[in-house]
C-alpha cells in the first residue's frame, strides 16, 4: 500500500469546514481576496505527482447514505461531470489528478487509506457535521517527528438538501467548495462575497449568484500554499 500501514487508528481532523452560504457568521477576509489555509488540513497527495494514473494521484469514491433521495450511482455520475469540467482536476501541472474508484466507498472500509477522497451523501437529519452543514473531515494522518503534517484522506459529507437535485447550481457549488477544503482552503468572509468558490454567503447584499467553479485565484492558492514540500 502507498499509505503508512502501521497507522493503527484513524484520526479525524479537528477542523470542520462548513458550507458558507447558509448565513452563518464568519470572520471577514480582507479585500485582497485572501485565501486562509491550514498547513495540516489537506491531503498528502498534493505534494506528489505521477506521469500516469498511479501511486500519487487523487482517487475518490462515492457513497450515498440517503439512497431513497440520491443513489450512489447518480453521485458517481455527477462527480465525473465535475471532474472533467472546469474544476480542480489538473491544477499544479497535474499534481491534482483525480480518478474515480471502481467501487463505492463502503467497499473499501475499513482499509480505505488508499482512497484519497471519500464523498458521501447523508440525510438532512444526520448530525455528522451538525444539522445544518455539509463538511470535510480528515483521516489517516501523516506524521513527521511525531507531529501531524497532513492527511492521507479527506472525507466529504454532503447534506442531501445541499445537493438535491444533483443538476442544481447548489450541488455543483457545494461539491466544488468542499473539494476546495480537501485541498486545504478555508472559508472566507463577507468582504469576499461572490468572487470565490470558497467565499459566498447568503447575507451578501445584493445577493450574488453562486460561484459554481473554482477560479484561477482559488487554484493558485492551492498550488502556492499547499503543494510545496513540507
Describe the structure.
With 230 residues, the chain is of the alpha/beta class. The chain is 18% helix and 17% strand. It contains four helices and five strands; from the N terminus they run βαββββααα. The protein has helices spanning 72-83, 160-163, 169-182, 216-226, and strands spanning 58-64, 98-100, 117-122, 135-144, 147-159. The chain has a five-stranded mixed beta sheet. β4 and β5 (147-159) form a beta hairpin. The longest helix has 14 residues, at 169-182. The chain is globular. The model is unreliable at 1-32 (pLDDT under 50).
The biggest beta sheet is recorded as: 5 strands, mixed
Per DSSP E runs of 2 or more residues, the count of β-strands stands at: 5
Strand proportion, as a percent range, falls in 15-25%
The radius of gyration is: 17 Å
N-end to C-end Cα span: 22 Å
The helix content, as a percent range, equals 10-25%
Low confidence ranges: 1-32
Q: Could you give the order of the helices and strands? A: EHEEEEHHH
- Principal-axis shape equals globular
Q: Overall pLDDT, averaged?
A: 79
Strand order of the largest sheet: 2-1-3-5-4
Structural class: alpha/beta
Number of helices: 4
Amino acid at each position: 500500500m502507498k499509505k503508512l500501514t502501521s497507522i493503527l487508528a484513524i484520526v479525524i481532523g479537528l477542523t470542520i469546514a462548513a458550507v458558507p452560504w447558509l448565513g452563518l457568521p464568519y470572520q471577514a477576509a480582507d479585500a485582497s481576496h485572501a485565501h486562509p489555509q491550514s498547513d495540516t488540513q489537506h491531503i498528502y497527495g498534493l505534494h506528489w505527482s505521477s506521469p500516469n494514473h498511479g501511486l500519487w494521484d487523487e482517487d475518490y469514491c462515492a457513497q450515498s447514505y440517503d439512497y431513497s433521495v440520491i443513489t450512489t450511482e447518480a453521485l458517481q455520475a455527477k462527480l465525473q461531470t465535475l471532474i472533467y469540467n472546469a474544476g480542480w482536476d489538473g491544477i499544479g501541472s497535474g499534481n491534482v489528478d483525480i480518478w474515480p474508484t471502481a467501487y463505492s466507498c463502503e467497499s473499501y472500509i475499513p482499509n480505505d487509506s488508499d482512497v484519497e477522497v471519500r464523498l458521501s451523501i447523508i440525510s438532512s437529519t444526520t448530525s455528522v457535521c451538525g444539522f445544518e452543514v455539509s463538511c470535510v473531515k480528515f483521516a489517516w494522518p501523516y506524521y513527521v517527528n511525531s507531529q501531524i503534517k497532513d492527511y492521507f484522506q479527506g472525507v466529504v459529507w454532503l447534506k442531501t438538501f445541499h445537493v438535491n437535485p444533483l443538476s442544481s447550481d447548489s450541488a455543483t457549488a457545494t461539491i466544488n467548495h468542499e473539494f476546495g477544503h480537501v485541498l486545504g482552503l478555508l472559508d472566507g468572509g463577507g468582504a469576499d462575497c461572490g468572487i470565490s468558490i470558497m467565499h459566498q454567503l447568503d447575507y451578501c447584499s445584493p445577493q450574488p449568484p453562486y460561484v459554481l467553479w473554482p477560479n484561477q485565484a482559488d487554484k493558485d492558492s492551492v498550488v502556492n500554499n499547499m503543494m510545496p514540500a513540507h
